[in-house]
Design a protein that fits this description.
disordered N terminus, disordered C terminus, alpha+beta, about 45% helix
Length: about 1900
């Protein structure tokens, strides 16, 4: 037989006859317990289906119709059917950031603009599964949410947490010391004086009605009421959630699509001051990225001039709009890096002279010299005023500077870190930033580059900084371009910058830079719209500055934006004849060719109107080839025509005022048409410049076209460089997308031919063009595809649903659209892989499905279905009711690939009376409905504009296309199956919603062909999973979860029996593959994930038909016929088979409770010890069950106990499954050895050497039993009968399983449990009791001290871990070596040991290793420890109360059947074990009540059968009688008193209880350090009080016997208290023990115990001779009483037999009055009062004598032993004995020397002096000089002992005293011995 588990080795054997008797009944019992996976149902009634295969599910819809529900209403009714408002389609207005929505001002819009605007403004169409949050994916019993649900828990009182009051305790100890001054002077009887004190002390409160004669039923009823009151309803709220990652079944709701922002920076411009103030200066700010060589923001213009300076420009500047007065701006940076600069450029009014001349005064004049240079300054001011008046509308470049942004941010950050570190780590901005950042989607490569950058690039949490810029560089007229600027900026980063050698313009510009607040007030968008929270429009605003991201950002457009930026770059008029030197460019946006057609769409800069019709570039003085650095921002009209264009007019500005010379002279013209072939023209242009005004109709042509008769500069060469950039959510700026949208809109408008690029597409080749444009979408750039993703997908879906009619033929584009969608979605997935959730769902696509997608409206020109125009949530009945096919529709369906029937357009009739009668009383209001899927109106429409209103349902077409696709398209669809599944489901829901079918019977909702397609689809995908799981692991995992979520969704909307059949299909495919695999765990793991997701459905319980009763189906179909007892509970005549089926994974159970059956089957199969290769899945499958039960426990729908009982019914087989796993469960009982706790045997008490008085085994022997709380009950023998070594579950898994078991036992219907218990065999019931026994240990309260110790150890551990990690990182030890060391166990073990439970599989758990930010405390606060202790205390109490409830049911079962009394012993064991553990006062009260009831009902159990348990019970009760908590003492005293009373009533004597209590007390006081005698005295007084008040027994001897017992206990108590004082003094301790043993002369059992205690103490100190003497006394005592019990000739006649060894043994003569006939009273009933016990004691004595060297005594002992073995004919033993005798005699012979003769001579010479005082000196002399090794037997032979016998120790010979054993080692007397020797000489 394989090695057995530790606990199985300790247990006693079951009687063979009993096993034989019960095995016979086992095979009729639960097949689950037969552990045969090939038996799935009851043997007699059903076709067996192996557990490894799925059964046929019940036809759920039919079942519900054929079994009408008896319950009218209430919570039970809600269990039976999905709620009527389960799914709602909600239209939620999208949140708008701005006060006014951003939409075009034009009323006339082309179709594309209209679609875009609709896409950016329509409400979100959300399918809402109203109860979805009640599914297991959102289980509130997760770590983060549990604390909320643990509020208001009562504090449980535990004795281990209640430290006794130190002062009173200390006083009492001192008092005791005073009363026991001299132990020698105090005879034992004198303690009786304290009995007076006992009588006068106060008892605890007496329990009312304890002594009344109440019927047992009434007591049980009362106890049950008490137990059930104020219980905690939710068990799992007290149990920490298992440590697992994000639950696989949780699908997070995607983020709402919103406008993208990078990290936001607020820049406030405070002041700009020069050394001289003579003219207005204009400033602008912008961000540049040097590395990318890109301007990454638009310009922010600000004006810091004084009012006086502004006044100089008054003639030229109209009144300023407040939006242009902004001085603060919010910049957005998506890719912060070390290369970002904030560039400030300054301009001034144009004046005569180049930039150097104009800047000179600013360089040479100082403010301090103002008085000295007054005249010069006045002159300069005067000149400036003249220029302002004349040239005020022109500007010239002046100066610039740049700020290295990241230097500022990082230095501000470090400042903050120095001062207030806390704010860095935490703070609102950080949280909000991380949110924003997540919402921004950036490309994979971009992300890699960004995140690998310097940490300092974080702009979210630096400290606001105020900068003062003091140096500006003057602009160089020939170096104004952006390229020159980038060179300067690169140079600035170098330490030896060229710029530093230049002479600067000194000035002071003060700006504030800080992280932008989340919701700033008074903010304007780049389009100047007011952002919400704009309380007052007169306040100076903050401008949001548009970002031009350095690299692509992948975010779909969600707001209307249509801006154009024009950047004139350079002009070359070198070859132009004539005067053209001071050149400015006027830019206008024209809608026609007339000068008056300029549009006021150019944004103003600073201190000017919001919009103007023209903008001028700055002038570079006397330069014919100037560079420009302007940015002109234009608000584009929504609808552009061929006449919209940009017009550039070049002017020469005359700076000197001359007569007849105009201020500006036009010197050239050029233009850019805005549209080219219908597409917006943007990009770099090098344009020719015309010398003359353009002719008529020029705007439709490009200036590159040589118009006849026009004169051009430089022969029509390109001389003007300009860049045009559009930031638009209307214009895709991608040719492929443009072509696709153009063709789709042409179809909508039915306008042919269509012009696209240079092509004219006629109707006859439209089909090919459309198909090619769809397939060409794959070639388009990813960034525009993402920006227009919502519109693009909408259009592709529209083409599927509404196939276009071209030239009278339907063109089916379903396949092409499906392929395009699959391709686009895969591109997104591959390129944006940083933007996926745990299931691989791209967040952009998930958001599209969840918020955007809706069934396209089949009217071409009307908005999509939604509340717009129809009000609220109207049902669109007008759109969905047209069921009659228009007569005009003569269509051959052969052209259509759709499998949907066009004739089926909705409900054939609106829900009529027949349907209503089926639906019953369900609410028909479908105003709200929810779920994650999509659909489309099934309405039939009139023919409009030549489009045939062919109606296809999107989900049907999608399913068909998916089933028929193949090759790369199918592969692409499989890769992103989740997308198509979710799309299909939302389509289905929308379809049901618009067709008003959400209330229709589920079987009538979808056509059969669609269901066939779905079946085919699911089947092929399951096939893919099975065939590819080893090759494409990652893809198959995604596919598996996608399929599971799809089926989960279908359960909400389709025929549920059909979905069950789909689940079975998947199961079947996996099962068949599993059989053939050598390592099935991967595939089994996938199936577990699949099942867990399906079972996470919010109506999982309803799907399992919790109210159906299991009856054997009459036919192969699994429908259930009987609906009789559907009401509450079960009718009394339920057949046994039904009950058995409910508790087994029988076929009826698995059919009717289909999903629960699958879950429990998985559990049974995976936990099966014979299951090969599935061990790794234990935790996973257990977590699945735990998660389900935990979710039910917290579900508000199941709060009602009656409902919860129905839910628990689905898990009844779990009890059997767990019973089977008993051998594999972690043995929590063993951990009691390693954990100190205040039970009757506190482990701490014997860990330290001197701290113990009585060894563990001896202490337990006192109680007459082996150590009970360290062993498993006897029935555990069965668990290892299989003979194979099982792998043990981890502590966490075992604990999870047991809490699940307790949940089922707590909530299941008690009557059902009782009936099942009645059917179980004794073996099975015993196994259940084993489980309960294990549960007691598993959920034992640890105590606050343990939590505190764990906390400190965790803290230390985390520091050790960190040190090791640093060591590995810094290279002193490689990570690999570290791993090798770990695997070999060379790393020091954490001293926490079992504090964390099992060390196996210990990984770095998040909550244990504490790799957190520096700001987080590593150790828990006092409050957290208190909270943990509070939860643990409540869990321990509730778990034990559940166990107590179950024990009561078992007891009731036994009392009903009266055939299983052997079970009661097991019940008692569990009960006693729970008393031994650390329990709360609340639990103990109920426990004692149950124990009293049990003893009352079955008195003979304790006093005749389970005698050892009687001893154990006495020990437990006495232990609690000494509790510091008064209620516990009250109940324990009451129990103890009733125990005596019961024992007395059986035989007018309670000798057994008397003896056991006395023994227990000795054990208790001897072993428990935290024992308090004062509390025990109080309990003794309580017992006395009960005896005095017990009127019924007053006339008997009972009160006197109780009084005698109590007084005796009191004396023992006093003696043992005395022992406590002397525990550090071994000699005194032994003497005390001797006195106590002598005091027990009348109690053989106790005297034996104390003799053994003394033997043990001597052995510990290697005093073997003394130990042997004690064992001889023990054997003599046993022999004395054995001669009365058994009349056998070969046994010693009594203690007389032993007097040759020591004459002292005559003390052991039997004198006890009690023991007149010990066999009847059972007094000498311990294990030593047997023949075997006697033999054992003698063998131990012989061994000890041998070790002591007293070989003659060895012979004497064996003289007593040999006759016994001869009588038993035990040759083996006799052989051993004679061998040992030979050894002993040879040693005597070997060690005889001349010394012996010498000493004999001495004895002859000194015999006369032997009795003189000198004899002692002689003895000491011998001791001193004779070698220590000399056997002590020599002394015995050498020295005759006439008269008084000598007491001989190891090195010292002394006369015997009254003490049985002294401990005086020779070393004590060495000096005295030496002196004696001298004296004798």
């Amino acid at each position: 037989m394989a090695e057995r588990r530790a606990f199985a080795q300790k247990i006693s054997r079951t009687v063979a006859a009993e096993v034989r008797k019960q095995i016979s009944g086992q095979y009729g019992g639960s097949p689950q317990l037969l552990k045969n996976l090939n038996i799935g149902g009851s043997v007699s009634h059903h076709t067996t289906v192996p557990l490894t295969e799925a059964v046929d599910p019940v036809e759920l819809e039919d079942y519900l119709i054929t079994h009408p529900i008896a319950v009218e209403s209430g919570p039970l009714r809600d269990l039976l059917e999905f709620p009527p408002d389960d799914i709602e389609v909600v239209y939620t207005p999208r949140e708008c950031r701005t006060l006014v929505s951003a939409v075009p001002e034009e009323s006339e819009m082309d179709p594309h603009v209209r679609d875009c605007v609709r896409s950016y403004t329509e409400d979100w169409a959300i399918v809402n599964r109203k109860y979805h949050k009640l599914g297991t994916g959102f289980n509130p019993n997760t770590l983060d949410k549990q604390k909320e649900r643990q509020k208001g828990l009562p504090k449980q009182i535990f004795e281990s947490d209640e430290a006794p009051d130190g002062n009173s305790y200390q006083d009492e100890q001192d008092d005791l010391k005073r009363r026991s001054m001299s132990i020698d002077d105090t005879p034992r009887g004198s303690w009786a004086c304290s009995i007076f004190d006992l009588k006068n002390s106060l008892p605890d409160a007496l329990l009312p009605n304890l002594l009344d004669r109440t019927p047992n039923e009434e007591i049980d009823h009362h106890n049950e009421d008490q137990r059930k009151s104020s219980r905690h309803k939710e068990l799992f709220a007290l149990h920490p959630a298992p440590d697992e990652e994000e639950p696989i079944e949780r699908l997070s709701v995607p983020e709402v699509p919103k406008e993208h922002f990078g990290q936001r920076l607020l820049v406030k411009c405070l002041s700009l001051k020069f050394e001289i103030e003579i003219e207005p200066i204009f400033a602008s700010l912008a961000l540049y990225d040097v590395k990318e060589k890109k301007k990454i923001s638009e310009n922010f213009y600000f004006d810091l001039n004084s009012e006086q300076m502004k006044g100089m420009l008054r003639p030229h500047v109209p009144p300023a709009a407040i939006s242009t007065l902004a001085r603060s701006a919010i910049f957005s940076i998506t890719y912060p890096s070390q290369d970002v600069f904030l560039v400030i450029k300054l301009e001034k009014v144009l004046q005569q002279g180049d930039i150097g001349e104009c800047a000179e005064p600013y360089m040479i004049f100082k403010e301090s010299d103002a008085a000295k240079n007054k005249e010069k300054l006045e002159k300069l001011k005067c000149q400036a005023e003249q220029f302002c008046q004349r040239l005020g509308k022109y500007r010239m470049p002046f100066a610039w500077t740049a700020i290295h942004l990241m230097n500022i941010v990082s230095s501000a950050g470090s400042l903050e870190r120095d001062s207030t570190e806390v704010e860095v780590g935490t703070g609102e901005r950080k949280g909000s930033w991380s949110e924003r950042r997540n919402s921004s989607i950036v490309g994979r490569r971009s992300l890699e580059r960004t995140t690998s950058g310097d940490e300092a690039c974080n702009l979210s949490s630096f400290r606001p900084a105020t900068l003062t810029v003091t140096n500006f560089f003057k602009q160089e007229g020939d170096r104004l371009s952006d390229d020159d600027l980038y060179k300067f900026l690169v140079d600035m980063k170098r330490p030896s910058s060229v710029l530093r050698r230049l002479r600067p313009i000194t000035a002071q510009l003060k700006i504030d830079i800080s992280p932008a607040p989340e919701n700033p007030h008074y903010c304007l968008t780049p389009e100047l719209l007011q952002v919400k929270l704009y309380p007052d429009s007169r306040v100076r605003p903050t401008r949001e500055i548009l970002e031009f991201p350095a690299r692509d950002v992948y975010v779909p457009n969600t707001t209307y934006r249509n801006l154009l930026y024009v950047y004139p770059q350079s002009l070359n008029f070198a070859n132009r004849q004539g005067s053209a030197r001071n050149i400015t460019v006027k830019v206008q946006f024209m809608y026609g060719e007339d000068p008056s057609n300029a549009m006021p769409v150019i944004f103003g800069k600073s201190s000017c109107p919001e919009f103007s019709k023209e903008a001028y570039t700055a002038v570079v003085y006397h330069n014919r080839s100037p560079d420009f650095h302007e940015e002109i921002k234009i608000k584009l009209p929504a609808t552009l025509t061929d006449h919209h264009h940009l017009l550039f007019t070049f002017y020469h500005v005359s700076c000197q005022q001359k007569q007849n010379t105009p201020l500006e002279t036009p010197v050239g013209y050029t233009w850019i048409p805005m549209l080219q072939n219908g597409r917006l023209k943007t990009g770099q242009f090098c344009l020719p410049v015309s010398l003359e005004k353009p002719p008529q109709a020029y705007s439709v042509l490009s200036p590159e076209v040589p118009l006849p008769g026009m004169k051009w500069v430089d022969n029509h060469k390109g001389v003007f460089n300009v860049e045009v950039v559009a930031v638009s959510s209307l214009h895709t700026q991608d040719p492929y997308l443009d072509k696709f949208f153009a063709l789709v809109h042409a179809l909508d408008e039915h306008m042919f031919p269509v012009r696209i690029g240079d092509m004219r597409i006629m109707e006859n080749n439209l089909e090919n063009e459309l198909k090619s444009s769809i397939s060409a979408l794959n070639s388009s750039q990813l960034e525009p595809v993402v920006r227009f993703l919502h519109l693009l997908l909408d259009k592709l879906i529209l083409l599927v649903v509404r196939p276009p009619v071209i030239a009278g033929q339907i063109v089916n584009l379903g396949q092409a659209s499906f392929e395009a969608m699959a391709s686009i979605i895969n591109r997104l997935h591959k390129n944006l892989d940083g933007n996926q959730d745990q299931h691989g769902r791209n967040s952009l696509l998930a958001s599209y499905i969840y918020y955007v997608f809706r069934l396209p409206n089949t009217y071409p020109n009307s908005p999509s279905p939604g509340p717009g125009g129809l009000g609220g949530s109207v049902h669109y009945a007008t759109m969905a009711r047209s069921a009659v096919r228009p007569a005009s529709l003569n269509l051959n369906r052969s052209r259509s690939l759709s499998n949907s029937n066009p004739d089926i357009s909705g409900t054939p009739t609106s829900p009529d009376d027949e349907v209503r009668s089926i639906i019953g009383s369900k609410a028909t209001d479908r105003s709200c409905n929810r779920m994650s899927s999509h659909t489309e109106t099934s309405s039939f429409l009139q023919t409009l504009t030549g489009r045939l209103p062919t109606k296809k349902l999107f989900h049907e077409e999608l399913a068909l296309q998916w089933v028929v696709c193949s090759g790369s398209v199918r592969e692409a669809a499989l890769q992103q199956a989740w997308f198509f599944f979710e799309l299909m489901v939302k389509s289905m829901v929308h379809h049901l919603y618009f067709a008003d079918k959400l209330d229709a019977p589920r079987k009538n909702r979808f056509p059969e062909r669609f269901m066939d397609d779905v079946t085919a689809l699911v089947s092929t995908i399951a096939g893919d999973i099975v065939s590819r799981f080893q090759k494409d692991t990652e893809m198959v995992e995604r596919l598996n979860t996608s399929l599971a979520f799809f089926l989960n969704d279908l359960l909400s909307i389709m025929d549920r029996g059909f979905v069950f059949a789909l689940i079975k299909t998947c199961y079947k495919q996996v099962s068949s593959k599993l059989y053939s695999l050598t390592n099935p765990s991967n595939l089994a793991s996938l199936r577990l994930d699949f099942l867990r997701i399906i079972c996470s459905h919010e109506h999982y319980v309803t799907l399992n038909l919790p109210c159906s009763l299991l009856t054997p189906p009459a036919s192969p179909s699994p429908s259930v016929s009987s609906a009789t007892s559907q009401s509450s509970g079960f009718s009394t005549n339920v057949q046994d088979q039904k009950i058995a089926n409910m508790f087994e994974l029988s076929v009826p159970f698995r059919q009717q409770h289909y999903l629960a059956g699958l879950v429990l089957t998985e559990l049974a199969v995976i936990l099966d010890p014979d299951a090969e290769g599935l061990f790794g899945l234990h935790k996973k499958v257990i977590n699945m069950v735990h998660n389900l039960l935990s979710s039910h426990d917290s579900d508000p729908r199941y709060a009602d106990p009656q409902v919860k009982a129905r839910v628990a019914m689905l898990y009844l087989p779990l009890i059997g499954v767990i019973m089977e796993t008993v051998p594999q469960l972690y043995d929590f009982t063993e951990s009691h050895n390693q954990r100190g706790r205040p039970s009757c045997v506190a482990v701490d008490d014997y860990e330290s050497e001197g701290g113990s008085m009585i060894s563990q085994t001896v202490a337990m022997a006192i109680a007459g039993t082996s150590v009970p709380q360290l062993t498993r009950p006897s029935s555990f023998l069965l668990t290892s009968s299989s003979g194979r070594q099982h792998s043990t579950f981890s502590t966490e898994s075992s604990r999870s399983l047991l809490i699940c078991l307790l949940w089922v036992l707590k909530n299941a219907d008690e009557s059902v449990l009782q009936k099942w218990f009645t059917d179980l065999s004794v073996l099975q019931l015993n196994r259940l009791l084993d489980l309960l026994y294990l549960c007691v240990s598993c959920f034992e309260y640890k105590g606050k001290k343990v939590f505190e110790r764990m906390n400190s150890l965790t803290f230390k551990k985390s520091k050790d871990m960190r040190a090791k990690l640093e060591e590995a990182i810094l290279g002193s030890i490689g990570a690999r070596q570290e791993m090798v060391r770990r695997s070999r166990g060379q790393l020091e073990r954490s001293p926490s040991g079992s504090a964390f439970g099992s060390q196996e599989n210990l990984r770095w758990r998040k909550d244990m290793t504490h790799w957190r930010q520096n700001t987080e405390k590593l150790d828990k606060s006092r409050a957290e420890i208190e909270h943990e202790a509070l939860i643990d205390g409540n869990l321990a109490t509730e778990a034990n109360l559940i166990i107590l409830d179950t024990l009561e049911i078992v007891v009731q079962t036994v009392s009903v059947t009266e055939s299983k009394e052997s079970i009661l012993g097991g019940v008692l064991k569990v009960l006693l074990h729970s008393m031994a553990c650390n329990q709360s006062a609340l639990y103990l009260q109920h426990c004692f009540a149950t124990q009293r009831a049990l003893v009352s009902k079955f008195p003979e159990l304790l006093f005749e059968e389970e005698t050892e348990q009687c001893a154990d019970l006495c020990l437990r009760l006495l232990r609690h009688c000494s509790s510091s908590i008064s209620t516990i003492r009250s109940h324990a005293s009451a129990s103890l008193y009733l125990l005596m009373r019961q024992n007395f009533e059986i035989g007018n004597n309670f000798a057994r209880v008397k003896m056991q209590v006395t023994m227990s007390l000795s054990s208790l006081v001897g072993t428990s350090q935290n024992f308090n005698e004062e509390f025990l005295r109080r309990s003794l007084k309580t017992i006395l009080t009960y005896a005095e008040e017990d009127l019924e027994l007053r006339e008997t001897t009972f009160p006197d016997q109780v009084q005698d017992l109590v007084f005796n206990l009191h004396m023992i108590l006093s003696d043992t208290v005395k022992m406590k004082e002397h525990q550090e003094d071994p000699e005194m301790l032994i003497d005390l023990m001797y006195r106590i043993a002598k005091g027990y002369q009348n109690s053989p059992d106790l005297r034996l115990t104390w003799l053994q205690n003394m033997a043990g103490k001597h052995s510990e100190r290697s005093n073997h001779a003394e130990s042997a003497q004690c064992l001889v006394h023990s054997a003599a005592l046993v022999a004395e009483y054995l001669s009365m019990l058994e009349d056998r000739k070969y046994l010693p006649v009594g203690c007389v037999t032993f007097q040759n060894i020591s004459s002292n043994v005559l003390e052991e003569s039997a004198v006890s009055d009690d023991v007149v006939s010990p066999d009847e009273e059972g007094i000498c009933s311990g294990k030593y009062f047997t023949e075997a016990g006697l033999v054992g004691l003698l063998e131990q004595a012989a061994a000890s004598f041998s070790m002591a060297g007293m070989y003659e005594a060895v012979n004497e002992v064996y003289k007593v032993l040999i006759p016994i073995h001869e009588a038993n004919r035990d040759a083996k033993k006799l052989s051993t004995i004679h061998g040992k005798l030979q050894e002993a005699f040879s040693k005597i012979v070997h060690q005889s020397t001349g010394w012996e003769f010498l000493l004999v001579e001495f004895s002859f010479l000194f015999f006369p002096f032997l009795f003189s005082p000198f004899c002692f000196f002689f003895f000491f002399f011998v001791c001193l000089f004779y070698p220590v090794e000399t056997p002590i037997s020599f002394y015995q032979r050498a020295l005759p002992t006439p008269g008084r016998p000598l007491r001989i120790t190891r090195n010292v010979v002394l006369p015997t005293t009254s003490t049985d054993a002294f401990l005086i080692p020779a070393s004590t007397y060495q000096v005295v011995g030496f002196a004696a020797c001298v004296f004798v000489h």
